[in-house]
Design goal:
The protein contains two helices and 13 strands; from the N terminus they run αβββββββββββββα. It has about 190 residues and is of the alpha+beta class. β3 (about 40) and β4 form a beta hairpin. It is elongated, with a radius of gyration of 21 Å. The N and C termini lie close together (about 5 Å). Keywords: Membrane, Signal, Transmembrane, Transmembrane helix.
């Protein structure tokens, strides 16, 4: 009976630690270049822009865009990456979010903000090639990029990495496993 209790405890632990999926935004399934659309669906996220979106696939421009590619929010009137954009995580909220901002000339300025629902969690001003680390925040449902009147060609974004928060079903699994553990403990 003691081994059954140990098994129940192990099962409770395994079930309660729902697998958190490491994820990326992968742009390689989209055609390179302008999309002729203000939104694209990547499966785990939707990107919307105030104008058009320009997609970079793996290897674009000497490979600053990594293996998963990237994007810029394209202002088609000047063909620069100076439009605003929002990434909405469509399957689950995320945590551990990091990405790279790439600029090709000086004078670029964008504010990147993360939200949980409508609540602002944090924001940062971007103006140079840099890795943005929002990994201290959990429950991120969207990320916005607001151009601040760039005098350069604007910013592009790539190397999005994050972990998806497990579905609410994880709570059901936890409660079920704890209940089973309690029943097994009572029987012993």
């Amino acid at each position: 009976m003691k081994s059954l209790s140990i098994f129940a405890a192990a099962a409770a632990t395994v079930l309660s630690v729902a697998a958190a999926d490491a994820a990326v935004l992968d742009f390689n399934g989209l055609p390179s270049g302008t999309q002729g659309s203000s939104s694209v669906d990547l499966g785990n996220a939707e990107i919307t822009s105030t104008d058009d979106l320009f997609i970079y696939r793996e290897g674009a421009f000497g490979d600053p865009f990594g293996v998963n590619g990237g994007f810029c929010a394209l202002n088609t009137s000047v063909f620069e990456c100076t439009a605003d954009a929002t990434i909405t995580f469509t399957q689950n909220a995320v945590y551990g979010l990091t990405f790279d901002a790439i600029n090709f000339d000086s004078g670029d300025s964008v504010v990147a903000s993360i939200f949980s629902g409508t609540d602002l969690l944090s924001s940062i001003s971007l103006s140079a090639n840099q890795t943005v680390d929002f990994s201290a925040f959990a429950g991120v449902t969207s990320l916005s990029f607001v151009d601040q009147g760039s005098s350069g060609a604007g910013l592009s974004y790539t190397n999005f990495e994050f972990t998806e928060v497990p579905l609410p079903a994880g709570l059901v699994l936890l409660l079920t496993s704890l209940g089973a553990f309690g029943v097994m403990r009572r029987k012993s």
